[in-house]
Structures are given as C-alpha cells and as structure tokens.
Amino acid sequence: MKQHITPTRTERLMQKDDFIVSKTDTRGRIRYCNRIFMEISGYTEQELLGRQHNIVRHPDMPRSVFDLLWRTLREGQEFFGYIKNLAKDGSYYWTFANVSPSLDSDARLIGYYSVRRAPERAAIEQIAPVYARMIEAEREAGAKAAISASRAILNDFLDQRAASYEHYVLAV
User: Above 60 in pLDDT, residue 2?
Assistant: First the structure.
C-alpha cells in the first residue's frame, strides 16, 4: 500500500547526464532500480523493490496520461512522455520517460523497461500548464469520467498542433 506523502513545492533536478532506469514485472512491480532512481526519489532499493512503480506518481499527473501509457504498452509499442514524479520527502522531479515492453526469447511479455532522463526546461514549461488543465478537468468530472474529461483536454491541445502525443513530446 502506498503511504501518504504531502507534495511540496521543492523541485529536484536531474543532471543532464543522469538516467533513471527501472524494470518491472507485468503488473508494474519494480524488479530493478538503478542508483540514480534511488537518489532522486529518496527511496532505498529495499523500499522500491517489489512495490508498484506508482509509488512515485505525483498527484499533479493526469490519469489520462497513464491511461495512454498503458494503452500504448498493451499494443506492444514503446511510450514516450513527460512525467512529474513524487519523491519520498514530498519534493518532485520531472522526467522525459521512455517505457518499453520487455519480451522473453519467445516474444512473450515479461515486464517493462523504463529509462528516464532530464527533460528540457522549455518542454516542461509547455506541458505543465496542459497537465494542470487536465487535472482540473479530472477533478470537475469526478472519478468515473475523469480520464475521458482529461483526455478531451489533451486531444484538443494536440489537435491544435496537428500532432499525436508521441509526436508532440518528441518534437518539443
């Protein structure tokens, strides 16, 4: 069970050459985490291994972005996106994430592999206000309609740019 952490306004910045790496099983339980992941999240290896990866999910992240992530992975595709994470002490950190399905030698899904790097500041300045509008739409819509309300905000934003989410995040 995820413990309650009160988010703060303190941001942790990844170094330009940092890469956060983790591997999960098919249910999203962490099976491997690198030193950088532990350092920036504030968790120990013991606290992370076996836990759901959403242990670092920040409440400012729209549910529809994770819905998009999981739909993309279920289609056997890799996901690229900007993710705001919550550290153990309540601070936050932004990442540019690449999540890929991990397959065994018989092409069966055995989990997921994720590499996150420091995002460009300009990209965060563009996506953060969109995510804030999406979160507001989720709150107004209520739990049952949250994802579709949030997705509508994102789709409108992307339609105005004639881009898919993946194309947008890779171009910004």
Answer: no
Give the start-to-end residue ranges of the domains of the chain: 19-171
- CATH number of the 19-171 domain: 3.30.450.20
Of 149, 158, 98, which Cα lies nearest the Cα of 126?
158
- Per residue in 157-172, pLDDT tens? 999 999 999 999 999 9
- State the SS3 of 39-90: HHHCCCHHHHCCCEHHHHECCCCCHHHHHHHHHHHHCCCCEEEEEEEECCCC
List pLDDT tens digits, range 23-32: 999 999 999 9
Q: Does the pLDDT at position 54 exceed 90?
A: yes
**56: alpha, beta or left, given left = phi > 0 and alpha = psi -120 to 50?**
alpha
Report how far apart, in Å, the C-alpha atoms of 128 and of each of 74, 82, 97 are. Answer: 26, 9, 15
State the pTM of this model.
0.94
